[in-house]
Specification:
With about 110 residues, this protein is mainly beta. The chain is built from one helix and seven strands. The chain has one domain: Jelly Rolls, CATH 2.60.120. A hairpin with a 2-residue loop joins β3 and β4.
């Protein structure tokens, strides 16, 4: 895995975050009025650049994925989330291999 630090991309360890919460207490990850939640199967291959008008939250459900934005790269494994700011051109890393849920907010 590559270093998960970037000035624009951010990895969140959802398992650790959840374990730090008091028992049966909600923690708001994001709020969306309308938008989309997608389920994707990412396998090793070339991925095109993407650009979205809204923030993208990529939650890794199985395996590991990487996101590349310019010279920056962050990786996340099962139970982690990558935050991609609105307007940032990015692509899945070619060695991504996992199942992810992607949350987009309202445009």
């Amino acid at each position: 895995m590559h270093d998960s630090t970037s000035p624009q991309l951010k990895t969140v360890d959802l398992v650790t975050l959840g374990q730090q919460q008091p028992v049966d207490t909600d923690y708001l990850l994001t709020r969306i009025n309308s938008g989309s939640v997608l389920l994707l199967n990412q396998r090793p291959q070339h991925y095109p650049q993407e650009l979205h008008k809204v923030e993208e939250r990529i939650i890794v459900l199985q395996g590991q994925v990487g996101i590349v934005a310019g010279n920056d790269r962050v990786d996340a494994a099962c139970g982690q989330m990558i935050l991609v700011p609105a307007g940032l051109s990015h692509a899945y890393a070619e060695d991504s291999d996992g199942v992810v849920a992607v949350i987009f907010g309202q445009e």
